[in-house]
Amino acid sequence: MTRPEIEVRGLHKSFGDNEVLRGIDLEIGRGEVVCVIGPSGSGKSTLLRCVNLLEEPTKGQVFVGGAELTDPDVDIDAVRRRIGMVFQQFNLFPHLTVVENLTLPQRRVLRRDKATAAKVAAENLERVGLAEKASAYPASLSGGQQQRVAIARALAMGPAVMLFDEPTSALDPELVGDVLAVMRMLADEGMTMMVVTHEMTFAREVADRVVFMDGGVVVEDGRPEDVIGNPRNERTRHFLSRLL
Ligand code: ADP
Ligand code: MG
């Protein structure tokens, strides 16, 4: 059996005496798309941040591509290069053009030469439908365009997995669709994805699995038609009823 691309075992995370993650077990196979849903404060962002070690787990293990991130001897930079992350706030460099936002991390982190970085940047801007914005500055773009640039920037690093933390929550409603379309394309291409989102239509249509978190634990984990369509747990039902 091949190992899951992402594996979380007995994960706990506390901030002081606030235990935010209380024992999370999760596996995501290669090419699988998993949407994580749940109320605000349930620990969704903390879970994602533990998966690329932006937060250090208090207890438990995290594996990405079979390598243990939580092993003190792991080459964390090498493992992190397998992981692309997209945040609610796009975090583009405001003083750099769109294409420079894509080439700089490739040059700095992957040590790619100028021509290669430029070629990969152009390919990925094309993928997200923004080739014509290469020379623009982020401030001149809509929020949806900025988020697509952020996705292209992550893709240019050649990640094996992509983590999304509420990528459309900061966008005006009319801009959400274009970003979700790019994510749908990635899912169709077979990218392994972990997506924290409130977009239930996306979760239903694109996710292979939906994970419902509440109070720092996984309450329900299953097919979207089960977790969203026919939740077994009262807490899941209550959460979903408030979204409608
Ligand atoms: P969600 O993404 O589901 O809304 P979070 O993971 O952001 O939840 O937060 C869960 C809990 O962890 C919240 O109570 C939050 O205040 C706390 N928390 C998150 N990050 C930190 C931090 N860096 N320091 C202290 N507390 C934090
Ligand atoms: Mg969050």
TrEMBL record:
<dbReference type="InterPro" id="IPR050086">
    <property type="entry name" value="MetN_ABC_transporter-like"/>
</dbReference>
<keyword id="KW-0067">ATP-binding</keyword>
<dbReference type="GO" id="GO:0005886">
    <property type="term" value="C:plasma membrane"/>
</dbReference>
<keyword id="KW-0547">Nucleotide-binding</keyword>
<keyword id="KW-0029">Amino-acid transport</keyword>
<dbReference type="InterPro" id="IPR003439">
    <property type="entry name" value="ABC_transporter-like_ATP-bd"/>
</dbReference>
<dbReference type="GO" id="GO:0005524">
    <property type="term" value="F:ATP binding"/>
</dbReference>
<feature type="domain" description="ABC transporter">
    <location>
        <begin position="6"/>
        <end position="240"/>
    </location>
</feature>
<dbReference type="GO" id="GO:0015426">
    <property type="term" value="F:ATPase-coupled polar amino acid-transporter activity"/>
</dbReference>
<dbReference type="InterPro" id="IPR003593">
    <property type="entry name" value="AAA+_ATPase"/>
</dbReference>
<dbReference type="Pfam" id="PF00005">
    <property type="entry name" value="ABC_tran"/>
</dbReference>
<comment type="similarity">
    <text>Belongs to the ABC transporter superfamily.</text>
</comment>
<keyword id="KW-0472">Membrane</keyword>
<protein>
    <recommendedName>
        <fullName>ABC-type polar-amino-acid transporter</fullName>
        <ecNumber>7.4.2.1</ecNumber>
    </recommendedName>
</protein>
<dbReference type="InterPro" id="IPR030679">
    <property type="entry name" value="ABC_ATPase_HisP-typ"/>
</dbReference>
<keyword id="KW-0813">Transport</keyword>
<dbReference type="InterPro" id="IPR017871">
    <property type="entry name" value="ABC_transporter-like_CS"/>
</dbReference>
<dbReference type="GO" id="GO:0016887">
    <property type="term" value="F:ATP hydrolysis activity"/>
</dbReference>
<keyword id="KW-1003">Cell membrane</keyword>
<dbReference type="InterPro" id="IPR027417">
    <property type="entry name" value="P-loop_NTPase"/>
</dbReference>
